[in-house]
Amino acid sequence: MSDDEHDNGEEGDFADWNEEEDEGQRRARCLFSSRTHPSPTAALAHAADAFGFDLRELTARYGLDFYGTIMALNYARTVAKDRGASAGTDDAESKVAAERAIEGIAAGEHRDERFLVPALEDDGVLFEWEDFVGTDAAGQDDDDEEEEEGVEPNHDEDDEDDPVVNAEMAASSTDPRVTAELARQLSAAIEENDALRLKMLELTGEPEDDAPTNVGAALLPAGVVTSKRSTAKPIPVAPSPRRSDPRPDRRSALPTVDEDYFGGYGFFDIHRTMLDDVPRTAAYRDALERNPSLIKGAKVLDVGCGTGILSMFAARGGASAVVGVDGAAPMAACARANVAHNGVEDVVSIVQGKVEELLLKGDIPGGANSYDVLVSEWMGYGLLFESMLDTVIAARDAMLKPGGAVLPDVATIHVAGFTRNATSQPFWDDVYGFEMPAVQADLAEEAAKLAVVHGIKSAHVCTTDGVVKSLDLATVTVLDTEFSSEEVTITARTDGVRGDENDDSVKAGGGRGATGLTQRPADPAPDHDAEPIMCHGIVVWFDTTFSERFCKESPAVLTTSPHAERTHWAQTLLHFPEPVALVPHGSFWWGKDQPKMGLIGTRTNPARGIKVRIGMAKCKEEERARGLDISLEYEPVLEDGTPGTRKAR
Q: Model-level pTM?
């Protein structure tokens, strides 16, 4: 092996790729060995002839659609890697791996979302497998063939099987016989939308352990934004054309982002997650069903209706007419079916389309400024991620009567400090008797760059909280959604909780994998008086209020606080590059006469508080139009107000 091959390390899997190859030629790695072939078609032909893995036969036998085939190919590569075949050239090992892959595909093991993620970077086989299988097997319409031969395709017949056409027909239908089964079929069919094929090719891996979801989307790989509802994987947007992808991108970024946004909400598991969030759903139910002076006899507009649950709450609460609007055609069809099945179709109407476009065309029933109540569950991570509030404001200004109610009507953003226990760092201190500082260093470096969405325990919050922004949703403007907040000062908690107490739940195996055999000493109970509290960053959350202004009988607060029942929004963590030391509440050890050394906010000179300011702004890049950039400024201060070093991230 050459020195270059040694230097490749883990990237040795890609050592055989020729970066200087011609634009028109794409070499491809064998599915079951380390060999390379002159083209993806040659690689697939070799897999069929040498190992019996015939993709043409598999797609026909098991009815693999486009995504099924992608998953099958990534599954095959994963099996080969797990069995060690992909790293060598032993045909016997490769054949065994191929046989195992075929068995797994037959058993449906490939049908897992993780196999939508490329198992091999820049895998040419994923781009060109259709050339090997044939367009008919890949689900290609016959229209292109007919048009090439000069035959006018029969679009009326084709439309019967077109998922997009069916979705649009169902979404615009007024027939109450539309069923939930049709909606389910439409939601599945929309996944086959050919526009999503381009995006599929850009899927990236899952976020790192310490950063399950990124709010500061500027730091994700190019071409990726994250959806509020999907914490498992990034949502790909149409990438810029690149050498390895011969298919040009002809669409502007913003429509693509919108397609991803509305398409992402077409999956029922996302809506199940939201509906399963009891604090969220119950707060809206109570506001709409327990405030008769507001809802009874009212006209209600539900912006972003999804399954139609809020519209049906309003109907059950006594509204005279409800209009639900959703941008995803499959979900609009599903909502209409749900409304009909539950017998409220005489009260509730569902309209499909983007609110801004419907407003321009005048396609929302009832006319301008004719609604008594506007309800919407628009909140994203950190409150404003996804920028849906802009849509709510547009609908409010155009459709709500003067003095009409907005539910919820107040939103507030809160901050507090968190300790090391709120991070993944303690897990790696003692992993069955081994320390893993390299992992800790990588995670800490990444976390310091990102806004991390992660639920934390109340016991891991180490300071008081402060409100950095309050929005009156009845009057807020789009300009108000971008801001730099006023400073707030947070200090150590006053209830006897430090936030850094020993907690087995944050250790390996819930404590069972922490042996105490590492060089790191076992965690003692901190001295509540002498030992400073180390604050590792700022946790951000929001509350939305259904206040007495509109909900006179039953006001309520929906909170995403770490001190309350967890919601699907969790919290947003902004990590400090270095922790700030705080004086524990009531400590006499760090009194005025105690000698202090070093910078303010260090262990030898702990601060009495931390001044915090955050900023939020919409991403300026077109391809991240629904993203959010968050900034943080913080400054440790002594009891007499002497400031330490101000830092920003």
A: 0.62
Q: CB–CB of 12/57 below 8 Å?
A: no
Asked if 377 is an active-site residue, the reply is: yes
Would residue 376 be called left, alpha or beta, if left means φ above 0 and alpha means ψ between -120 and 50 degrees?
Answer: beta
Angle between helices 55-62 and 40-51 (to 10 degrees): 80
In 3D space, the residue among 205, 166, 196, 183 whose CA is nearest the CA of residue 263 turns out to be 196
Q: What is the dihedral of CA 583, 587, 589, 590, to 10 degrees?
A: 40
The neighbouring-strand residues paired with 452 are: 214, 573
The C-alpha atoms of residue 391 and residue 356 are separated, in whole angstroms, by 7
> Could you count the other beta carbons within 10 Å of the beta carbon of residue 284?
23
Residue at token pair 């991803």: 260
The partner residues of 612 in beta bridges, in order of sequence, read 488, 634
- Three-state SS string across 347-407, please? CEEEEECCHHHHHHHCCCCCCCCCEEEEECCCCECCECCCCCHHHHHHHHHHHEEEEEEEE
> Is 198 within 8 Å of 249 (Cβ atoms)?
yes
pLDDT of residue 145: 40
Query: CA distances (Å), 8 to each of 14, 16, 214, 442, in order?
Result: 9, 11, 29, 20
Map residue 7 onto helix, strand or coil: helix
> Averaged in consecutive runs of 10 residues, what is the pLDDT profile of the chain (649 residues)?
39 35 65 89 92 93 87 91 76 89 91 81 85 59 40 44 46 45 48 41 37 33 33 31 30 43 55 89 97 98 95 98 93 93 97 94 93 96 87 97 97 98 94 94 91 95 97 96 94 93 92 82 63 95 98 97 96 95 76 69 92 91 73 93 89
Burial of 641 (0-12, 13-18, 19+ CB in 10 A): exposed
- Give me 630's structure tokens: 């968050």
Nearest to 221 by CA among 203, 201, 195, 197: 203
Residues 93, 130, 259, 386: which is the catalytic one? 386
**Cα separations (Å) of 81 from 39, 97, 221?**
21, 9, 25
Give the pLDDT of residue 587. 67
* Region for 586 from its dihedrals, namely left if φ exceeds 0, alpha if ψ lies in -120 to 50, beta otherwise: left
Tell me how far apart the alpha carbons of residues 506 and 341 are, in angstroms, rounded to a whole number. 46
Q: Which of 377, 446, 531, 623 is catalytic?
A: 377
Q: What does the chain come to in residues? A: 649
What pLDDT is stored for residue 91 in this prediction?
Answer: 82
* Residue 225: count of CB within 10 angstroms of its CB: 24
Q: Provide the greatest CA pair distance for the chain.
A: 94
The SS3 assignment for 36 reads: strand
CA-nearest of 186, 147, 184, 158 to 170 is 186
Q: Decide if 99 is catalytic.
A: no
